[in-house]
Specification:
Helix content is 39%, strand content 16%. It has an eight-stranded mixed sheet with strand order 15-16-17-18-22-19-21-20, with helices on both faces. It has a six-stranded mixed sheet with strand order 1-2-6-3-5-4, sandwiched between helices. A six-stranded mixed sheet has the order 9-10-14-11-13-12, with helices on both faces.
Length: 1168
């Protein structure tokens, strides 16, 4: 429940293969442009482009549907009507009491109070079973409690009133009026201590080191939300209650409500719920001073009470609060600290990183090494005051920054692909209300053996931008990209998700940005882009990079330079790095010669008109069509005839098997306005790495090589990359056990200048080039980067406590089948090996292309799909292995997983003592523990490893238990025979099990912060497994594992699911499904495999009837399926970390003495 639970990602974390930017398409630019436009969101007719052009000093207008106000007791509120998802709303209560507001003896108090007041709320419990989600999180500057609810409670519940808004507001209001009891405090104290152990990963420790350096002059370096363990254990009931009384007052809160509700009615409900809450006494810790210096909290209560040493010497801007202007009578804004105040802070802060003399200036630098780190990371920061965006001129400055940042990011990516130095590199500038500053950051991860070259290269490219700026073509390219992205968000209007709207509303309010509607924001962006000059943008680029350009020589100076490195390289040699050497390398980098960026010709289309006409002629020569009669996907048609698959009309889709055997599915979806998605699915994945053709690891390495490459004859990799950047096309390649996927996201409209093809056609041209074995250029340097990335991933897995444990469990469970394990050493694989493996899986008959999005012309989308996919050449190979791979998609039933099977699981389990789990220990400086259970289960589509279809196995079990012969008919409910029944029932069962684990292991036994049950996602492979994970302190790990085992077995034996369990799970699963139906990506997930015979239960009927079947599932259905979730023949494991292996007989008191690492998880979320 710390800030990290909001899925924020820190800048220092290396990108995984699944999340890396494919074909060099830059995620940073997309995220930044979306953040820019998503500060704003419906169309006020009074504002037009001409009006905005009238005056650059013109104030930007607030969203006309944003309703703000203050109750007599001081509670501020902000209400925004929003349409998506319809029939739902979100209410977030922000209390301005975070970890930075704690005193020296309260470190962790804000987080503990968060747990006590919401987890102990009786009114919050009234939301259970209604399809609502509730949670809370604590950060530096605030604690937030939220409820995401349907507008009306289900009719099946016996409520006097079905309106959910009053119930949600009552639950949030109770936070301010919480009753404290010793039992509740002790229960949540145990949960917080368990959470403390859970989050203390190596990634978290790296974050702590970064914070120590970046905020060394203030409390953010030491005020992490969980705090200090010894203090958490020591507080009594009165102390916890006193913190609540001081901070949890209406006048210290802001309530946000965003959703499909009428704003005036919401205000009335807020008044009814909160008006009777009185204010408390203001605690002295709330006073906005630190020593003799006014803190940033005096400027805005949204900021933590800290002071910063700014990198820039420019006069900071005046900051005012959007919602509580009238309450902020402090005229003094961002004040620079006096030098003596810095020294006082450093003396007080024992974690402070001292400054080092560098180039005649004092710069704070820090090197952190740890045996669990596998890659080198480098972080160079500059802190600046947050500049509110309230006028057109300020918006224009923001746009210029985004243009310069996007251009630099593309250059960094291109540079990184010239040789395998980086696995991730990014330069960004983002506002962070949680830290009360804007942070300009250069972040990268690299091979630890070449860290010096990587640092020099990253600094050199950043200095080039600062010295010479961007080119004319870059200004045109990235300016147009910002306008395109802004235009799409304007087209979406109020269809952005409530969660996105409330997040960006809170951020813009905290930073004092004007929250506009999307249409006005788009007009402002167009005005800004059309007025930009190259000199102006280059001045801004120079300002962004100024702290790097003359590093250590002149102002502005970096706020911090941080390097994190492993203790040893893969060959066992020590990593040669120190603080002095880091600064020496930085000094060398600033002296390297740099030259201007040359202009580059970027193609408007990857295929010229002659090539396109040739494809059209090929399609025209084989245009005959047949239609299947059913949705069962087992029909046979004449060779080289297009086969239209029936049933797609049930979900508004069109599907066909084309002349060359490739499948295409096209689904129009208007929810994401002017956005589209394409997915290539190649059946096989790592499961085909079992023969002479596809060597061990070859598909995994090949997919990564495809990701790292991107050159298509006759275009270079850089030209293809910029072609995609021009059209905001994002590409991602992933390889899993049963398939390889290539995912595209893009805007659907044609370029604004009308020159070139539209977004869908551009994406399909790339699809065609990938599927054409003669078009994609397989490059040795891309293979080198891919090999390095997989090696780093494997080492990270094997050295982490969680990764090592899961790897060992799957090794035992699958009989050491390498296809289900992390790819290991790939040095023996050649470029030809990986090319052969990937080309084999990308044969047309083995491929499905799914297209979803907002298309103006559905028929034209189908035409383009057939043109670019159906024209890919395919001739059956004489090689039996390759021919076999091409037939994977047409297999009559799912391919059996070699392991796991009940027999394999039982054999592995028999090797363990019935009393003792497998034990894994990883050397680490800190003690931690996690426990796992793995067991056999059906796959996601309802197929067992040995018994075949789950429903058939259930029927046989009914026959056996009733004493009937298998030849005797059993009264099988009709729903059981529906293709989606097993999928839905398993999703419901997973939700039921997770709720039961939470109730027993956390709430009742207080052994953990979190326990999770997860079924494997296999659909084509027959059979699967489940994994239970539970984090706990080392002293509680065995007890937590035993509690999870008992809970699972209890469900299967004498404590089966109840009707209430099922109804609650059903509401969660169905509501999640309905909400996700507005997403292009979710529709790609639903449609993937629909055309494959090897996924027989995946069909259009399964998608169309999902909710209907979910409503029909009974408790007896779950009980019947539970018999095939093997809870008896399991493999369990307790994994620990520390300087020495933990003896099970070690006392809890001894463990507590060693478990004093003392910090909560905190995310550097501003950089995402």
């Amino acid at each position: 429940s710390t800030s990290a639970k909001k899925a924020r990602v820190s800048c220092h974390q290396p990108k995984s293969p699944a999340s890396s930017v494919s074909l060099a398409i830059i995620a940073m630019m997309m995220i930044a442009t979306m953040m820019m436009a998503m500060f704003f969101v419906v169309v006020p007719p009074a504002w037009s482009l001409q009006t905005l052009q009238a005056s650059s000093a013109l104030k930007l207008p607030s969203h006309p549907d944003l309703l703000r106000g203050t109750l007599p007791n001081g509670l501020n509120y902000a209400v925004l009507k929003n349409a998506s998802p319809n029939g739902r709303f979100e209410a977030h209560l922000e209390v301005f009491a975070g970890s930075a507001d704690e005193t020296d003896d309260q470190q962790g108090m804000a987080h503990l109070v968060e747990h006590v007041v919401y987890m102990g709320s009786k009114k919050r419990e009234r939301l259970f079973g209604t399809g609502s989600q509730t949670n809370a999180y604590t950060d530096f500057h605030h604690t937030v409690f939220y409820a995401c609810c349907p507008n009306e409670a289900p009719s099946t519940l016996n409520f006097l009133s079905r309106a959910m808004l009053p119930r949600a507001l009552d639950a949030l209001c109770e936070v301010l009026c919480a009753q404290f009891t010793s039992s509740r405090v002790e229960k949540e104290r145990a949960a917080v201590l368990s959470e403390l152990s859970m989050v203390n990963t190596i990634e978290y420790r790296v974050e702590c080191q970064i914070l120590r350096a970046l905020h060394s002059e203030n409390a953010l370096a030491r005020r992490l939300p969980i705090g200090l363990e010894e203090q958490i254990r020591s507080w009594n009931l009165d102390q916890v209650q006193s913190f609540h009384a001081s901070h949890y007052r209406p006048d210290n809160c802001l309530l946000y409500v965003v959703g499909d509700l009428e704003p005036r009615a919401v205000v009335d409900a807020i008044s009814d719920a909160f008006s009777n809450v009185g204010g408390g006494k203001k605690h002295s810790s709330l006073l906005p001073t630190t020593g003799t210096t006014t803190t940033l909290k005096s400027q805005s209560r949204h900021f933590p009470p800290v002071v910063h040493s700014w990198s820039s010497l420019a006069k900071p801007p005046v900051v005012s609060s959007l919602v509580d202007d009238e309450k902020d009578d402090l005229q003094s804004r961002h004040r620079h600290l006096e030098e003596e105040d810095h020294h006082q802070q450093d003396e007080k802060n024992k974690l402070a990183i001292p400054a080092t003399k560098f180039g005649g200036k004092m710069v704070r630098s820090h090197v952190f090494q740890h045996e669990l780190l596998q890659t080198f990371s480098f972080h160079l920061f500059a802190k600046r005051p947050i500049e509110p965006i309230t006028s057109l001129e300020q918006h224009r400055l923001y746009v210029m920054r985004r243009v310069a940042l996007a251009a630099l990011q593309v250059r960094l990516n291109v540079m990184a692909r010239n040789e395998p130095l980086f696995s991730f590199v990014e330069f960004n500038y983002l506002d962070s209300a949680r830290e009360a500053c804007a942070v300009c950051s250069l972040d990268m991860t690299a091979d630890a053996g070449r860290w010096e070259d990587a640092v020099c290269a990253a600094l050199r490219e950043t200095r080039r931008m600062g010295r010479y700026g961007i080119t004319k073509s870059e200004l045109e390219r990235f300016g147009a990209a910002l306008v395109t992205d802004s235009e799409q968000l304007a087209a979406m209007g109020d269809q952005l998700a409530h969660s996105d709207q409330v997040t960006h509303l809170m951020e813009s309010v905290a930073c004092s940005h004007t929250f506009m509607d999307a249409a006005t924001a788009h007009a402002a962006t167009v005005t800004a882009v059309e007025s930009l000059t190259l000199d102006e943008v280059n001045d801004v680029a120079r300002d962004l990079c100024a702290h790097v350009l003359d590093l250590g020589v002149a102002e502005p100076l970096p706020s911090a330079i941080v390097a994190c490195a492993p203790a040893k390289l893969r060959d066992g040699s020590l990593v040669d790095i120190s603080n002095e050497k880091l600064l020496t390398v930085a000094d060398r980098a600033k002296k390297e010669p740099i030259a201007p960026e040359p202009e580059l010709v970027v193609p408007k289309t990857l295929m010229d008109q002659d090539a396109i006409k040739a494809l059209e002629a090929k399609i025209a020569s084989s245009s005959a069509t047949t239609t299947t009669k059913t949705t069962t996907k087992t029909t046979t048609t004449e060779e080289k005839k297009k086969e239209v698959l029936a049933g797609g009309e049930r979900v508004g889709a069109w599907a066909a098997k084309l002349q060359n055997g490739a499948r295409v599915i096209v689904k129009p979806l208007k929810h994401e306005a002017q956005r589209g998605a394409v997915r290539i699915t190649a059946a096989g994945g790592r499961s085909v790495e079992n023969g002479a053709l596809c060597k061990a690891g070859s598909v995994a390495l090949g997919a990564r090589t495809l990701q790292e490459g991107g050159a298509f004859s006759p275009w270079t990799r850089e030209q293809v990359e910029l072609f995609c950047v021009d059209r905001l096309i994002m590409v991602e390649v992933t390889c899993e056990e049963e398939a390889m996927y290539v995912d595209f996201q893009f805007p659907t409209p044609p370029p604004r200048d009308g020159d070139g093809c539209g977004g869908l056609e551009a994406a399909l041209q790339i699809v065609h080039k990938i599927l054409d074995p003669d078009a994609f250029l397989w490059e040795a340097d891309a293979l080198g980067r891919a090999r390095l990335g997989l090696a780093q991933q494997h080492e990270t897995t094997s050295r982490s406590m969680e990764g090592a444990a899961q790897e060992k469990l799957l090794e035992l469970f699958t009989g050491n089948d390498h296809r289900f394990l992390s790819p290991g050493d790939s040095n023996d694989l050649t470029l030809e090996d990986v090319k052969t493996a990937v080309t084999a899986t990308l044969q047309a008959p083995n491929v499905e292309v799914t297209i979803v999005g907002d298309f103006d012309d559905f028929d034209d989308a189908k035409r383009l799909a057939e043109l670019y996919v159906g024209s890919v050449d395919y001739e059956p190979s004489n090689e039996p292995e390759l021919l076999g791979i091409a037939g994977l998609a047409d297999a009559e039933e799912p391919e059996a997983v070699p392991s796991p099977s009940p027999a394999a699981a039982a054999a592995a389990a028999a090797e363990q003592s019935q009393e003792e789990p497998l034990r894994i220990h990883v050397e680490d400086s800190d003690r931690r523990a996690v426990a796992y259970i793995v067991g056999a289960a059906p796959n996601k589509g309802g197929f067992l490893s040995k018994e075949g279809p789950l429903v058939d196995a259930v029927v046989r079990n009914v026959q056996e238990t009733s004493g009937k012969s298998q030849k005797t008919d059993v009264n099988v409910p009709k729903r059981w025979r529906h293709p989606v029944f097993a999928t839905v029932a398993l999703a419901l069962l997973q939700e039921v099990i997770n709720r039961r684990l939470f109730s027993v292991v956390r709430e009742k036994k207080q052994l953990t912060y979190d326990a999770n049950f997860q079924l494997a996602d296999h659909e084509r492979l027959q059979g699967g497994w489940y994994l239970v994970s539970v984090t706990a302190s080392p002293g509680n790990a065995d007890a937590a594992l035993e509690a999870c085992q008992d809970t699972l077995r209890g469900l299967a034996r004498n404590q089966p699911p109840t009707r209430d369990n099922l109804d609650s799970a059903r509401r969660v699963v169905v509501n999640r499904h309905l909400a996700d139906l507005t997403s292009n990506k979710y529709w790609c997930d639903l449609l993937t495999g629909v055309s494959f015979d090897s996924s027989p239960n995946k069909c259009f009927d399964a998608i169309a009837d999902y909710v209907n079947v979910a409503e029909q599932v009974t408790v007896n259905d779950l009980v019947s399926i539970l018999k095939f979730i093997d809870t008896e023949h399991t493999i369990s494991c307790v994994a620990t970390s520390g300087n020495e292996e933990i003896d099970k007989t070690t006392t809890q008191q001894q463990l507590e003495e060693h478990d004093n690492h003392g910090y909560s998880h905190v995310s550097l979320g501003r950089r995402r």
